[in-house]
Amino acid sequence: MAKSGLFIGWGPAARGREQMALALFQETLQYYSRLQQQGEIDSFEPVQLEPHGGDLQGFLLLRGDTDKLARLRVSPEFIALTARATLALDNIGVAGAYLGEGLEQLFGEYGKLLGSLT
Predict the structure, then answer these.
(1) Which of 5, 3, 2 is nearest to 96 (CA)?
(2) 3-state SS assignment for residue 79
(3) Whole-model pTM?
(4) Which helix (H) or strand (E) holds 58?
(5) What are phi and psi of 9, to 5 degrees?
(6) Could you tell me which of 5, 32, 34, 11 has the C-alpha nearest to residue 85?
(7) CATH number at residue 108
(8) Containing domain of residue 41, as a range?
């Protein structure tokens, strides 16, 4: 089970760039499929949200090894894909995520810190 992840969120397509956004989404899915086949990520899940009045319209959750995901974030291909996404979509964001065992470790450390305050 992966203990780390990358959350890649996006807002609406920039006006007039909807076709570009759709083509980029398809390219992005192919890119992450290739990374999964190569063992660079464990898995990925694309999510599109229903209309809700907020600025987050969808996200990708990548799961994998902490070190591999860190290398991915600074790879030229990832940087270029993210830069292209900023031209087609509003509100692009990338954030590290704690999953599974990593989440348990995070909250375990948090619990220790809370215990030391009493």
Answers:
(1) 5
(2) helix
(3) 0.88
(4) strand 58-64
(5) -105, 155
(6) 11
(7) 3.30.70.100
(8) 4-116
Helices 76-88 and 18-37 sit at what angle, rounded to 10 degrees?
160
Instruction: Please report, as a single letter, which amino acid is at residue 26.
Output: Q
Query: What phi, psi does 81 have (nearest 5°)?
Result: -65, -40
- Per-residue pLDDT 10s for the chain (118 aa) are 678 999 999 999 999 999 999 999 999 999 999 999 999 999 999 999 999 999 999 999 999 999 999 999 999 999 999 999 999 999 999 999 999 888 888 888 888 888 888 6
Distance of CA 104 to the CA centre of its chain: 20
Count of structural domains, the chain: 1
